[in-house]
Amino acid sequence: MQDNLSSSIVVENAQKGVSRIIFSNSPSNSMPIDLLQELVMTIENLGEDENVQVIILQSGGERTFCSGANFEQLLQIKDEKSGEIFFNGFAKVINACRKSPKIIIGRVQGKSVGGGVGLAAATDYCFATQFASIKLSELNIGIIPAVIEPAVERKIGLSAFSKLTFNPNDFFSAEWAKENGLFMEVFEDIKSMDEAVENLANRLTTYNPEALTTLKRVLWKNTDNWDELLAERAEISGRLVLSEFTKRTLGRK
């Protein structure tokens, strides 16, 4: 059975001081550019809201967390500029998470591919279920996970990132992702994960907001150049997606 979702972003006030962002795009929560742009604005707006201390980032449905960039839009890229704009989508979401003064908790209920792994890595503390396996499939179509690499490597290290990248056909288990630092905790089911998410969010709201904001800056040390870095990475991906290899590969899909 597939998730029956419409393309949308919904913001819910989970409890005092906590806001929940739910992004959805049927059937596998892929992210078209307009949804990514809306997600950036939503994260930024909540970051400026004095009534919000904690943000929970999640997707709709009970299966795939995020299958990455929207494949239909990928096929429509015809020049380097449009390719750069396309890949900048996830770059801007990662930077919005990084620069937000609020702690962002990730809630990952199912599989993540490509940019979806980048979204999980951009959160400050990420929970997952046992079904939340991950994959970086970019080499299969002749590109590389250039934009999300800084966020993912920051969490799991170069060695684990290399293992993911050089095995683009393989899903790595949620336990593997936990052992390597992407997920902090892994649960048997969504219900137990949600209880843990809510418990942490509630507990964080009892702490000094200034301390949380300061901690956020400490956690993201040495990333002040990411606006420029991720924009450069988007250019690289925008160029690679126009290669003859990629055109041939996409033509077969």
TrEMBL record:
InterPro entries: ClpP/crotonase-like_dom_sf, Enoyl-CoA_hydra/iso, Enoyl-CoA_Hydratase/Isomerase
Entry-linked Gene3D superfamilies: 2-enoyl-CoA Hydratase, Chain A, domain 1
Full protein name: Methylglutaconyl-CoA hydratase
Protein family (similarity comment): Belongs to the enoyl-CoA hydratase/isomerase family.
GO MF assignments: catalytic activity
Domain of life from the UniProt record: Bacteria
Cross-referenced Pfam families: ECH_1
